[in-house]
Amino acid sequence: MGAAAVALALVFVFIKLELGESAPQFPCFFIFGDSLVDNGNNNELNTTAKVNYLPYGIDFPEGPTGRFTNGRNIADILAQLLGFDTYIPPFATAQDDEIINGVNYASGSSGIRSETGERLGDRISMDRQLVNHNITISRIAQLLGNHTSAANHLNKCLYYFVVGSNDYINNYFQPDYYPSSSIYTPQTYAIALVQQYSQQLQTLYNSGARKIAVSGVGPLGCLPAVVGRGSSGSFTCVDTINDAVQLFNDELKLLVDRLNNNYTDAKFIYTSAMELNPIELVGPVIRILSTPCCQVSNTTGLCVSRKTSCLLRSLYFFYDNFHPTEVVNTIAAAASYIDVLSLIFSS
Ligand SMILES: *[C@@H]1O[C@H](CO)[C@@H](O)[C@H](O)[C@H]1NC(C)=O
Ligand SMILES: *[C@@H]1O[C@H](CO)[C@@H](O)[C@H](O)[C@H]1NC(C)=O
Ligand SMILES: *[C@@H]1O[C@H](CO)[C@@H](O)[C@H](O)[C@H]1NC(C)=O
Ligand SMILES: *[C@@H]1O[C@H](CO)[C@@H](O)[C@H](O)[C@H]1NC(C)=O
Ligand SMILES: *[C@@H]1O[C@H](CO)[C@@H](O)[C@H](O)[C@H]1NC(C)=O
Predict the structure, then answer these.
(1) Count of beta carbons in the 10 Å neighbourhood of residue 267
(2) Mean pLDDT value across residues 158-179
(3) φ and ψ at 309, to 5 degrees?
(4) What is the pTM of this model?
(5) Quick check: CB of 22 below 6 Å from ligand 3?
(6) Cα–Cα nearest to 144, from 204, 208, 200
(7) What average pLDDT score do residues 208-220 get?
(8) What φ, ψ does residue 162 adopt, rounded to 5°?
(9) Cβ atoms 222, 278 nearer than 8 A
(10) Rg of the chain taking only CA atoms, in angstroms
(11) Euclidean distance between CA atoms 168 and 180, whole angstroms
């Protein structure tokens, strides 16, 4: 996405957020994935991958909630664009009838593979997120009276996936802790990951989902955690990592085509909204690419608790060593919104 497209997307989002919507474009919105969309599911887990402390949430109305950024995350902004007047609640704390509009199952450090993120502690892997969705389905059937009504509700919902990053940065590219890189080449790893993802998406289909969006993985070789800072001051992404991720994205696009061919009563889409490259995005809005906004821990790459963050947060691409700032999330959510529009009109 070039700078002009980004500026247009931003204008579009601001107008849209200003106008609001009378009724949501989907009756319900379910979110699966990792820290890019987690909104508090890790808070009570025994893990270093949790962020319910300042300066996270410094720009969020409720303060620190477990969102891995300064303000709203991509799922929050997408929910607003879709016309929801409240954020989708995290599975960990969702109560009573709030689940009728959707639930957010995402968990920081989690991945498609169950061992992904293990070194950081507990996390809710994709398989477990799907088990949690089954619990939600039972609750919705109770709320609506029976499984037929629940099924009629659930097949109209948007199911949105942001997962895969940790299968690389908290698995494949940590050979000291995970064996995957000695078992697979980047190509066979991408195929194995997408194979497992395929099973997970079919499980979701079997539980009644019919409108499903999957996100490609961003250029992880450009993360501050990976790029390293200081030496020359220049910013160069790590090609081996970006190339490995590209193989995954290519496989995932092929999977979406196969699923659409096999399940003609459903629609699957691939969204490249998460694939924002900091180098291409620099320009009118974002000016600081390689330095995170907050002071990060040199062991976790997350913000150090209670240290102040930068003041001009909207000039920065990264909030910590891994996660984008709210302004970048806004751009990604706008791009996602445009992609998921095609699901609204699918029957
Ligand atoms: C949390 O995890 C760490 C490391 O995995 C472990 O040593 C510790 O006992 C765990 N704490 C609790 C309360 O389970
Ligand atoms: C969810 O429940 C259905 C029906 O009981 C079952 O077939 C499926 O395996 C369950 N899925 C998961 C991920 O537990
Ligand atoms: C399920 O509930 C709906 C709404 O309450 C009702 O109209 C329908 O007849 C019920 N279906 C069955 C199979 O019980
Ligand atoms: C699609 O259907 C074919 C033929 O039944 C099957 O071999 C293949 O595994 C299916 N692929 C997916 C992604 O469901
Ligand atoms: C991390 O930071 C601490 C304190 O600032 C320092 O003592 C330590 O050497 C650093 N560790 C690494 C691996 O850079």
Answers:
(1) 18
(2) 98
(3) -105, 175
(4) 0.92
(5) no
(6) 208
(7) 97
(8) -130, 95
(9) yes
(10) 19
(11) 10
